[in-house]
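Appendix B, record 7
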Amino acid sequence: MLILASASQSRKKLLENCQIEFIQISSDFDETTIQEKNIFNLALELSFQKANSLSENIQNISLPEEFNSGHLEILGCDSIFEFKGEAYGKPSNKEEAFNRWKKMSGEFGFLHTGHTLIIGNFESTSKIFEITEIIKKTVSSKVYFSKIKDWEIKSYVDTNEPLYCAGGFALEGIGGKYIEKIDGCFSNVMGLSLPWLRENLFR
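Structure tokens (predicted):
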């Protein structure tokens, strides 16, 4: 049984669309405690800490009956957009979102998503989660942006969508029409590489 250690609605939707049975429990890990400078490694470390935090507190979580014993997988993910060597998380305000899009227009960047799958066995009676394997990988996709006009940027920023997305855009949302093409995993840009998950979840 799979637990998604994330509050992300896009990741939730991806799993639902693929008919993968799971429950969603947001991790309470404080991301500000990680000081890793390398963007690629940062995404991976954050994904691990999210999954690990949940695994360490699993005994305090009220799980559905079918999750109370047996095989259990905990999936942690974290996405960071890299543009010309700089990490772009969620813009703090509309002005920052607008300025980013001015730079990104007609350019490209990399969406890095760290994936961690903690696999083990959980017994509800003993409240023990015995970890048998930890699988980790950062998957990167190259994202090319269309050349867009200032009024289009303002119109998009005014929807507020960029303020809730790593990099300031959502491929599956309004911002999808400004994405020229993608080199690499498509679903990875939405926060979860489904091919990676299939390969490691259904072995």
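Remarks on this record: The longest strand covers residues 128-145. The radius of gyration is 18 Å.
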